Amino acid sequence: MKSLNSAIAAAAVLALSAAPAMAQSWLTWLWGGGRGGSTTTPTNPAAVPEIDGSTALLAVAAIAAALAFAWERNRRRA
Questions:
Q1: HSE-up of 45 (CA within 13 Å, CB side)?
Q2: Rounded to the nearest 5°, which phi and psi values hold at 63?
Q3: Residue 51: which residues within 8 A CB-CB, separation 6 or more?
Q4: Domain coverage including residue 3
Q5: Contact between 43 and 33 (Cβ < 8 Å)
Q6: Is the pTM here over 0.85, yes or no?
Q7: Separation between Cα atoms, residue 65 and residue 58, nearest integer Å
Q8: Where do the TM regions start and end (predicted)?
């Protein structure tokens, strides 16, 4: 049962984290910006900000914290 709950939680986290990227690509496709769409005006790509060193360090720290939490949780279970 615990593995089922973990799988459901992992699927929910994946769906919530992937939703913005999926929405951006699918909405563009549905509104005619994708393959087979008939737009008369050219679309310009949006400017994407670069990730600087401090933001990258925060991302790595967040991943490290999640891994440490998972490791500690598994350690206490054993």
A1: 3
A2: -65, -45
A3: 59
A4: 1-76
A5: yes
A6: no
A7: 10
A8: 53-71
Main-chain dihedrals φ then ψ at residue 31, nearest 5 degrees: -85, 10
Cβ neighbors of 25 (< 8 A, separation 6 or more) are: 34
**Tokens standing for 29?**
């496709």
- Supply 53's token pair: 């060193």
- Tell me the pLDDT tens digit for each residue of 25-70: 655 555 555 555 555 666 677 777 777 888 888 989 999 999 999 9
* Rounded Cα–Cα distance for residues 30 and 45 (Å): 17
Which two three-digit tokens encode residue 26? 């699918």
CA distance 49 to 35: 26
